[in-house]
């Protein structure tokens, strides 16, 4: 894992989005097509903005997304499907394939549907973030580091739910769902390359816990330390508590 620290979220997002674009372009050139995983949330705003501005033949790209609430309608401002449609899909034109998680159908069946698809595919690059509780996707601590199921049903812990409310996606904490479908830790780690974007001071403790400690399911994103082709982009604030940091 490589850590790159930028001055602010805008510089972070531009660097992460540009690297993602370069990887996608290179994979298309070598394989003829590429498969990507996209995350959502405020940490991905600048990264996705940069990525959608890049010159990529999106008709050769298959997209999966990382997680979705169970029972939340797509019309909700907090829906991750809506987020990706507005901030990515509508901006890049037709993709080869789009595999969004439908949280409004029977969850176990939706996991089976997605699992049957992704098991046949090699993911080239995953864009991810880290939660305030150190989660990767919605794999809250203690995360399941053992399951080989690609998509799983999870309970959201209170710190995770508080983060979603605090970011302004919901009017009250009571509105935040308690369950979600998420890509599992092992499935994320199967990606050929991972780009992790983590801006803002409120993530500083999670960044420290995940990157200054040994790998533990109590700090789920710490598993990224074991990925040979992971680049984590931080800013001055999110990296503030790291044992050693320098601006690049």
Concise overview:
The protein has seven helices and ten strands.
In the sheet with the most strands, the strands line up as: 1-10-9-6-2-3-5
Mean pLDDT: 95
Shape-level CATH architecture: 3-Layer(aba) Sandwich
Helix content: 25-40%
Shape: globular
Q: N-to-C SSE series?
A: EHEHEEHEHEEHEHEHE
Termini separation:
16 Å
Query: What structural class do you assign from the helix and strand content?
Result: alpha/beta
CATH topology: Rossmann fold
The top-level CATH class is Alpha Beta
* SS elements, strand count: 10
Radius of gyration: 17 Å
Total helix count?
A: 7
Portion in strands:
15-25%
Number of domains: 1
Weakly predicted, low-confidence segments: none
Main sheet: strands, sense, barrel: 7 strands, parallel
Protein described:
The protein has a 7-stranded parallel β-sheet with strand order 1-10-9-6-2-3-5, covered by helices on one side. It starts with a strand and ends in a 13-residue tail after the last strand. The protein has helices at 9-31, 45-52, 80-92, 107-118, 158-166, 185-189, 204-211; strands at 2-6, 34-38, 61-65, 67-69, 97-99, 125-128, 151-155, 179-183, 193-198, 230-235. Helix 1 (9-31) packs across helix 2 (45-52) and helix 2 packs parallel to helix 3. Helix content is 31%, strand content 19%. Helix 2 (45-52) links the parallel strand 2 (34-38) and strand 3 (61-65). The longest helix has 23 residues, at 9-31. It is built from 7 helices and 10 strands. It has a single domain (2-235), classed as Rossmann fold. The chain is an alpha/beta fold and 248 residues long. The radius of gyration is 17 Å and the shape is globular.
